[in-house]
Design a protein that fits this description.
Its main location: secreted. It is found in: Secreted; Bacterial flagellum. This is Flagellin. The chain is mainly alpha-helical. It has 2 domains: about 70 residues; about 200 residues, Up-down Bundle (f41 fragment of flagellin, N-terminal domain). About 70% of the residues lie in helices and about 5% in strands. Strands 1-2 form a two-stranded antiparallel ribbon. Strands 3-4 form a two-stranded antiparallel ribbon. It is rod-shaped, with a radius of gyration of 39 Å. The model has no long low-confidence stretch (mean pLDDT about 85).
Length: about 300
């Protein structure tokens, strides 16, 4: 029958060995932290930290999508703004030609008016090309059409759709990033129809151009108004992009606080733990071996 003394010695040895195993586990974890630079290597290291890290990563992915959407919107609106600015300049050129043709001596000179009409026709074609400006292969004035043009290149008729191109740039925030074709007018006031009328009247009777001149002025105002609106949305998108990037930086810092290890501290802890473990190992060897011999006797 095993004596009480031997049972006590066995219990002591078991506790000592368990302590060594715990020390070894702590040592291995510290080594892993120093090697990987992470204090959370697997879910069991910190269940709460792991959940928080997953939530932060999901939020970071969302902010990344918002930033990309805003950046795309900025580029798309920038393309539209450039097109509108060009259109405004071209409309002014048309207006100047109309006034020239309505005034002496051109008004009474069929050849001069024919030349002016040709210039206006060329400006009309250039404006039509501007109206078909694309961004990544899609017309910026064509709504959500899958086609490559917003206006028929011959007649100037609108061939896009009434859809709106939207970009989500924040929680619950969407911004329109296209420009409606109505900026060029509709029906009889559609810019390309007006220009066709101007060309025809310039050749035959420039005295009837006053109404067309008024419609050109209306078109110019519509374009100017839209340029201002695009500028407002452009600023909104820029602010949204900056906000998303700032939030990503903040989330990255929070994620680092959860996952990343203080490397300098971890190295010191590893050295301390290693020294302690080696000392405990040596002490245990001195204690356990005699006890084992006593038990075997």
């Amino acid at each position: 029958m095993v004596s009480l003394n031997r049972v006590t010695e066995q219990s002591t040895s078991a506790r000592v060995l368990a302590g060594l195993q715990n020390g070894q586990s702590r040592l291995e974890r510290l080594r892993e932290q120093v090697t990987t630079g992470k204090q959370v290597g697997k879910p069991s290291d910190s269940p709460i930290g792991t959940i928080s890290a997953m939530e932060i990563r999901s939020d970071m992915a969302t902010r990344g999508r918002y930033a990309r959407s805003a950046t795309d919107g900025v580029a798309r609106l920038g393309t539209a703004e450039n097109a509108l600015t060009t259109a405004s300049d071209l409309i002014n050129q048309v207006r100047d030609r109309v006034l020239q043709g309505m005034s002496s001596p051109a008004a009474g000179d069929p050849a001069a008016r024919e030349a002016i009409a040709s210039e206006i026709a060329a400006l009309r074609d250039t404006l039509l090309s501007v109206g078909n400006t694309t961004y990544l292969g899609r017309p910026v004035f064509g709504g959500t059409t899958s086609g490559e043009q917003a206006f028929d290149t011959t007649t100037g008729a609108y061939i896009g759709d009434s859809g709106q191109v939207q970009r989500r740039v924040a929680d619950g925030v969407q911004v329109r990033v296209d420009v409606p074709a109505s900026v060029f007018g509709t029906g009889s006031n559609q810019l390309f129809a007006v220009l066709d009328s101007v060309v025809a009247k310039m050749k035959t009777d420039p005295t009837t151009l006053s109404g067309d001149l008024d419609r050109l002025d209306s078109a110019q105002r519509a374009v100017s108004t839209e340029i201002a609106g695009v500028g407002t949305r452009y600023s909104q998108l820029t602010s949204a992009s900056d906000a998303a990037e700032a939030q990503t930086v903040s989330l990255t810092s929070r994620l680092s606080d959860i996952e990343d290890v203080d490397l300098a501290k971890a190295v010191i802890d590893l050295q301390t733990q290693n020294v302690g473990y080696e000392a405990a190992l040596a002490a245990t060897a001195r204690v356990v071996q005699p006890s084992l011999l006593d038990f075997l006797r």
